[in-house]
Give the backbone structure.
Amino acid sequence: MNNKPLLTDGMALILSYTPYYAIVTHCLSGCAGNGCTVFSQRTFIIAGQLLMSDIIAARSGTSSVRTLIGEAQSRIGDRVFYALCVLASVVILATIAGILFQLVSSSQLSIAKFGFGFLTGSTWDPVMEEYGARPFIYGTVVSSLMGLALALPLSIGIAVFLVEVAGLNVRTIASFLVETLAAIPSVVYGVWGVFVMVPFIQEKVGMPLAEKFGESIPLFAGPAVGPSLLSAAVILAIMIIPIITSITRDVMLAIPMSQREAAFALGSTKWEAIKIVIANARWGILGGIILGLGRALGETMAVTLVIGNSPYINSSILQPSYTMASVIANEFTEATSDMYLSALIEVGLVLLITTFVVNMLARFLVWSVTRRSIAGGRQ
Amino acid sequence: MQRHDDLIMTEEQTHSDNTSSTPPAETGVKKSDTGQHDAPTKSERLTVGNLGVAFSGNSAIRNITMSFRDGKATAIIGPSGCGKSTLLRALNRMHDIIPTAKVTGEILLDGENVMQMDAVTVRRRIGMVFQKPNPFPTMSIFDNAVAGLRFNGITKRSLLKEVAEESLMKSALWDEVKDRLKQPAMSLSGGQQQRLCIARALAVEPEILLMDEPTSALDPIATAKIEELIHELKTSYTIVIVTHNMQQAARVSDYTAFMYMGELVETGKTRSIFTNPTKKQTEDYITGRFG
């Protein structure tokens, strides 16, 4: 895993939004270790060898018709397949490069004027043409991480239930229901959030928290308003649970029965056997986390409706906040001046980079935690 | 159908019991006499009575009645799909984890009904080694060796180290891994992994060791090492080994049971099963006429 080329890593990160690719990549890296690298290197080598042997075969021309036809077919197939694979990855890389280029070039005005101060400044004032994105970065990162923190234990719990506890019928039905959550459009979540969830959280969670701890812990400082970081985190959690759950479930199902048997045969309890399965599935679960985090960081509509859209950093999670995606969605149509537009596009650029950085950190975190247990650190 | 007293193995001629060196009898000797069978004796650790296992209502094994002797290796042989592994897995309640499996009949461990004991306790007392090496890939060699101890709540480091060394020595792996205990278990070769799995099973000090074709995934050298190991282990453990390989059964076991189509055809001393089978089916199988 350590010597996986940067390219694959980077692509997997960028493509966090593209579930299929990411699942495949993570499953490969999870199950086969260095399989990815080996595979791609081999492909190159094999492709080279095929060309060479073609030339040799053409020169000697001694093979029987049957073998020639067979070989020719498989070689053409191989080459077409190889070309298609390369093309597919080039398309993806080109798209990312294109987006990056566009974002950078369109935000030149704002980059030139504010420089690094764009990231640290916390004033967002279109009238005075002064733009700082710090509140949005804070809102995006904190709401996503809070959403992930809420969703991860639940998702793993659901996946464990589906794989290790539930019977086949229950698993099928419950899996379907969980995955249906992923198919609900985010605006529907947002509307439900505004009318049902936000009042509930304000009354049943926010107010009691603010009353009890508001004075002593700044995290819960009141007064508890409805649209808040907490509301956004809860709605994000609901939205990423199906992603993390279904990936964790699939990876756990792929862990061979022999691992559970090995644990049971040593006199483990069910829970201890499940821990073995989870340890085996850790790379797949990481894949699920990265996909879920990607979704949470970029989520726009539902969050915009419940987060309160207030561009100030507040230490309390019961206060409104604002995310990068929300500010772009809310203000893009109103951005009349060139500088305003440029600043919003720069927010988009920062969002892309943030997604990168957060995913990278998540990877590093899980890697450094699991590495110790692999190396026998408990000894 | 089989007579009950045919199924009970005897303890006759213990002094001439070094069947380990018994050559596999390839010559189809006609059955001559079966009059050596005696009543069961005290040395039977594990007995099964009228055991049956069914998966989703389809019977896999039925009417199995036999016993396994203390300090001896018993081989279960028979063609593929005859229920050898199913029988073995019934002994330590491994069928519990398969929802569709149903086990009937009785299994007695020192007179106690295994089916009514706590499954975790049963599996601690009856260890198991599987067909394919299945070390825990997320753990180091050391952690694998003591995984069973940790499952059972032992965390004292000095004890873990001691047991790890002891069981790795028993499984003849210590010399190869003593300098790399912290490396991942998957860095070992297949044969080493299987010996690690044996060490892992031995570390919890089971009374009985079940081995489900432990060498079928290994090369001849690793196989020889593991067979040697079985020889050493059977002085202190009761061993039940399922094998496809009749030469292996002849080499390592003191007693042999032959199964066919989910039923127990014949059990007895390995030497007499191989040289003097009482049933036609056994003879046909041993002489290679089918299976």
User: Anything to note?
Assistant: The longest strand of chain A covers residues 124-125.
